Give the backbone structure.
Amino acid sequence: MQTIHIDETKLPKVIEIIEKAVSLMEEKECVSDDEAKKDLDVLQEKLRKISGKPAIDVRDFQEYWEYTDVETVAKKVLMDLPVKDNVTEDEIKEIVLTILSHSEAEMDWWLEYLKVNTGLPNLSDYIFYPDSVGLDRQAELGEIADKIIADRKKGSCLFL
């Protein structure tokens, strides 16, 4: 089973890059101002290099504060993308039973990991809105894990 890895030594630099990019996008018109666009492109390349993610776009973080904090965003940038594993039912149960004890960045990663490995496109609904997947609104995490496993087995999902 894949696990989360964050190189904490890179975290301050990623935070700095994101904050500089956001500040630049707030202060300048990065589409029509050639100098500002060039500066943003430099920050973009630095973020791609430090994260090892060639497709990451620094512009995606322009208004991160509307939904999270910069440290959470930076941690997500540094996390490897979840991959398809041969995840067992016991591993699914373990993840579901502990998912709410993780930080926001880690919880989002584990939700994506489960989505990739179960094929359930609405995986977060199982955790946060169990009534939308046929469970009681106050369903226990163990019941939710069982439902995820059952729906995975039924083939009522799209494998990615």
About this structure: Residues 34-51 form the longest helix (18 residues). The two ends are 17 Å apart (CA to CA). The mean pLDDT is 93. The CA atoms of residues 24 and 39 lie 8 Å apart.
